[in-house]
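Progress narrative, Year 2. Work on Xanthine dehydrogenase from Niastella vici advanced from sequence curation to structure prediction during this period.
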Amino acid sequence: MKHKQDFSRRDFLRQAGLSGIALTIGCYWPVSGKSVGEIIHANNAETELMSWISIDDTGKVTIFNHRSEMGQGTWQAIPQIIAEELEVSMDQISIRSAAANPQKYGPQPQEGSFSIRGWYQQLLRIGATAREMLIEAAAKQWGVEATECYAENGQVIHRGTSRKLGYGALVKEASQIKPPQQVKLKERKDYKIIGKPLRRNDTTAKINGAAVFGLDKKLPGMLYAVVERNPRFRGKVKSFDDSVAKSVSGVKHVFTVQRAVFGLLYEGVAVVADSLWAAMQGRKQLKVEWNDDGFEHLDSEILHARMQQDLYKPLPSALFEEALKKASANIEAVYETPYQSHSCMEPLNCIADVKDDSIEIWGPIQEANWIQAELSERLHIPIKNVTVNMTFLGGGFGRKAFTDYPVEAALISKEIKAPVQVMWTREDDISMGPFRSGALYRCRGGVDAQKKIFALQIISASQNMGPGQDKDAEPKRVTDNLGGIGGLPGDYYKSIPHYSFGNLPTTSPIPTMWWRAPGANTNAFASECFLDELAHLALQDPLEFRRAHLTSDRYQALVNKLAAISNWESRHKNDGWGVAITECFGSMVGQVVKVSRGQDKKIKIDKVFALMDCGWYVNPDIIRAQVEGSIVMALGASVNHATHFKEGKAVERNFNTYSMPRINEIPEIEVHVMENDEKPGGVGEPGLPAFAPALCNAIFDLTGKRIRKLPFTLEEV
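Result:
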């Protein structure tokens, strides 16, 4: 018999309802041709990874989270939406992760802050559909009309007689009822749990160690692997000597392995052992000769010079040039942002178990469907036989949405014919890429006699997402309307008479990809700092200058609220106050940063005021936590770390050189959430872009010095 301390939470959840029939409501993605779902008659263990809601005959409700949980709160928010319409409280349900299954759940990517803004209506309908089926089942038992009944607190109640039946007593009959095609959803004023700051259900498990992250997952008979990868990314394995590595006790296999990065195959040498320690020691004894011919080995200085040249490649726009000449006054500036590593606190890792006709993986997976499809295609296994299990993620930031590390793990498992956990060391994680690309921005603009922006142009030079280009980009004419720049509020396109935007893709073999709030995380630094320069040119208050150009009612409300919460009117001539307002993934964010000089004369960040307008929202505590985390991450990217390259290799390899903000460096952060009836926007990413420009604008306000290059050091300002 198991002792109590050996009986895991996972075992309990799996076995708790084995004897009961379950009502499982699934919901097909619209492309399948079905607007609502199906009923599956099975026990909890069989349906655990296959559907949205499971209710066993004891009344136990399980709600499945179909998105990865990397700290952003889907584990709480998605079940909270369903539970609202299902009429159960959060303490009446258990939550489980769903495996990749696009036929049942639709797309499951965790990117673009899409989980709530893209799914809230469908999730509400799922809960309401299950509720109506249970009400119908109760009405049949009582011989009354369903309209005479209502659901509340996990039971159905008859209005006329106050009779009650719990969901567990109704589940068998409800499972025979065809799901209704149309259901009535609650009005926002009637919500009981949506919009409330409820405690997250995953917090306790993450504190006491019960939560299973990718690094925690183990399989019987599992081996461990680490890979010596080419530090120049594109190089091939010319030869390797594994004689000493194989002499390390526990080392079982050494062989070459590939991982696909945006269409290119990167090579390395895998060392597989019966323990992680043995694999790592074996790797240290490995001698690899690389073939690095056929591509450039670039330094950061060369990359910078190349981007600087690219800034001036576009052929000019005659219309914009004419508009700029008509401005009363104009200004030009160049802004620079660096390459960055993702550096999640949990390094990349993945378990793969590949058999002749099936693949199963476990790990911190951010994009389950894409990885499932990629594994199927590359290993020639039918997609129905590819199972992708998502553990908790210790951060993702876009890196763990990529397919390279699960495919690499699967190829190693296939080679050794055993389950294997492939571990990336911290050095691997920081130095192997793909990275966020560095960028340069050439900003030009002018103001008119009314002290408003008359003309604005922002041209950027950076690597586009991918492994790099092999051919020089042709110069392209900058047009007068290229659709905008990520991070810049949409109102500016209505209030600025003449604007143009463009990008020249810089060529480099260094692999680059998305990084939290892609595009906006660098664009906003240049655009919002330059807007501050235009406000100074026009001799206008920076916040009032923005108010004059952000003309919609929604933005006017945001500006008013931001001024109120920060007490903007209290600022004095010698204070250091900076503001930035950005738009990203359907949400609007305003931030005010206050800085001062301490007794040691060094710049100190006193406080950050952040205002999030994400429209309809689920849990304000999750929003506050995400905005705080975004600001801390933006602080690190502004003043702490950057990735540099020497002879084609990443220089920074661990936190001793790629330093993270320490807790004593974090300023006071005050987060507010706008209340309105707008459609939901994203939360996990939009909180990041505004911080860097607000900080640099505050430093200018205090010192008169413009910070146009990131990262910089506060002590040296």
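The first helix runs from residue 9 to 15. Residues 199 and 572 are 40 Å apart (CA to CA).
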